[in-house]
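Hey, why these numbers?
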Amino acid sequence: MTAQPIETMFVLVHGAWHSSWHWVPTQRALAARGVASVAVDLPGHGFDAPLPTGYLTGGRDAMRTEKSALAGLTMQDCADAVLSTLRSVRGGARSVVLVAHSAGGGPASLAAEQAPELVDRIVYLSAFVPAGRPSFLDYANSPENTLDRGPGLTIGDPGALGAIRLDPLSTELSYVDELHQTYHADLPVERVDRWRSTLSTDLPLAVPSSPISLTGNGWGSIPRTFVRCADDRAFLPAAQDLMIAEADEAMPARPFTVHTLPGDHSPFLARPDELAAVLASPPR
């Protein structure tokens, strides 16, 4: 007896310092709607993420200078992880929807550009869209993304480390508060220690800095949706809107369908039911 193909499969790509397990609340909410999904771990993330010496034992001295084990990873390495998952699910689903969060928009976009036949729709959740400007840092460092963020979260020199490094287990209250407000402000304070312990330390520098070139026959041929986060402090709404506008200007044949969710940068944790409802809704 031949198995019937799944109607729709969502392939979920996390952002910087996160991993596949951060999608679990949203995957439960999708499953409750009868929608299948699989979450990807990009290289250097998840349970296999290497950690700087002493990070788990309280020895923080080396964190500012110890070169990242992820320094040699490329944008293509990360896109290949997405492509591998897309190829594994393509034959078993009538429709494949690729969903990317934040910095995960880079690898997801490159994967879609290189194999548009594997993707029926691509969704950006407050995620980098390289259609107007080629690298994540082009938008992250834009005036539209300017905010008084305090002393900053980056540890050490990213160029020397080969990664943008955070210290999620920091004992400095001001650092913990900034991390909380930037990425997961909608989660209650009593859950701060739990959520930050699930973050990894290093984002390979290639992910935010590598330029990506998209074409109308590749990425531009795929219907696309952008889910804005209205109270996002990591990727400000003005920067999200800039990416949408510049992508639509660069490739006007398939303009973005846009949804807006209230709240912070990470609705997959704080608002999984609302996010699942948007993802599972028919595209407009």
